[in-house]
Every structure is written in structure tokens, then in C-alpha cells.
């Protein structure tokens, strides 16, 4: 699976997966990985402890699923996230 992604893409996928406000659907739209495939990729790419932390963080988090999101959340990042 990771063979089809460049190291830069793989790094960005992992970064997006860790971001609280980036829904799984955005990763699927950009990289073609559904939630199940993303979990497999994360399990393979992260060390075991980091994977457990990531799963605990994303399990049940409404912002990671578009269908569960509040309509007030209409962007994928915090306004202060990319300050210059």
C-alpha cells in the first residue's frame, strides 16, 4: 500500500490522520484511502505505542467523521494553526 505513496505523501497522510479537525473523508478524497485502509497504514507506519495513542484519540471523535460533525465546523484546521 505505501509503495504507491511518495515519502512526502505518506508523511502528509499521517499528519492529516493525527489532526483532530481533518475528517477521514478528506483523506479518502485526496489519497483514496478509506478509514479501514488508513487504520492499516497507520498500524504499519507507526510504532505500536503511537498507533494505540492515535486510535484512542480518533475513536469516537466526532470531528474525524463528516456525518458526526457539528455544522459549525466548516474548515479542516484551527484559524491559528498556520499563523505566519
From TrEMBL:
InterPro entries: CHP03643
Pfam family, one: DUF2805
NCBIfam families per UniProt: TIGR03643 family protein (TIGR03643)
Protein name in UniProt: TIGR03643 family protein
Amino acid at each position: 500500500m505505501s509503495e504507491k505513496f511518495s515519502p512526502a505523501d505518506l508523511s502528509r497522510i499521517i499528519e492529516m490522520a493525527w489532526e483532530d479537525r481533518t475528517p477521514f473523508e478528506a483523506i479518502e478524497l485526496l489519497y483514496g484511502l478509506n478509514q479501514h485502509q488508513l487504520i492499516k497504514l497507520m498500524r504499519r507506519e507507526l510504532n505500536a505505542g503511537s498507533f494505540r495513542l492515535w486510535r484512542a484519540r480518533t475513536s469516537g471523535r466526532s470531528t474525524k467523521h463528516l456525518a458526526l460533525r457539528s455544522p459549525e465546523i466548516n474548515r479542516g484546521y484551527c484559524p491559528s494553526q498556520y499563523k505566519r
